[in-house]
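W.,

You were right to be curious about this one. When I first looked at the sequence I had no strong expectations either way, so I just let the prediction run and decided to look at it fresh. Below is the sequence, 315 residues in total, followed by the output.
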Amino acid sequence: MRFSHEDEFRTDASIESSRVNRPRSETGYSAVVLYYKRGTEVTLTLDDLQRQRLAPTEIVVVDNGSRDGVIASIEHLYPGITFVSSRSNLGYSGGMRLGIEALHAPTEWVALLTHEVRFAPDLATELLASTDEGTAAVGPLLSLPSAPTSIWSAGGTFTKCGQARHHSTVLSSKPYVVEWLDGCALFIRRQFITTGLFDERYFLYWDDVDICTTLSRSGSVKLCPSALATQDTATSPVYYSARNQILYWRKWGVKTAVVAALVRAAVKILVRDMPGGRRGWAIGRQRGLGVVDGMKGAIRSFGTLEREIGNGVVN
């Protein structure tokens, strides 16, 4: 089923009232799956979602400007799922916003999932059972598909220099509060989803950090250690890594973290990038552009930057 939606978020008084009065055992959720050029692997995520013991009330898949024909080729396999598409890549926040706007069911929770995340049938049950009235968002432990017992994210934190880092060890056997969660499997309480939650300036990386920071102003952001999902990790292009770290700390008014990010980027350009020959210079240019655009709040074409150095480079 394909859908076109132009309404605002469904946050009217009747929906809020139904959330408040719904018994805990009847807590429901809708799901948004964001797709971009991942191939038919997205069907594995959709199948996992449909196998949940606590089934989602509604599922929306967003084709985020991929134009690869994959979503069109699988639509007929999922008659109960709504498919929406954008003409261009809106980034993580823009794509998730588009999916949420397409939801109709007034569920208490919305699950934000990316196109390659995998999980067991009890994921939603475990996550929602770990919440309380003050929980704004909750997420699972994350491991690699090739090594399910090797945790690469047990929630997120910040270094003293303002870098976003994953906890690689579980901090408690019970649900615990973290500073941020990875955006690949993020359950958000619907009452906290406001128009300003998704800052589309980030486009790629740090979106989830910013979303969780915003949510933590109204409720708690929790990691549920009894819930597990798997996803491969990815390297972050230096442009977005440099740009978005600065953009984030400027937005939240932490000047010392902005200065630390500027110094770190300058050192990397001088010590790591420039001695690396032609490729190193290209990487240094990306990093420098990221710094400039982070300070200005501007953004450049991801495609142009990506082609300049092939597959992109690590932070």
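Here's what jumped out at me. Residues 277-296 form the longest helix (20 residues). And, maybe more interesting for your project: The two ends are 40 Å apart (CA to CA).

Coffee later to discuss?

I.
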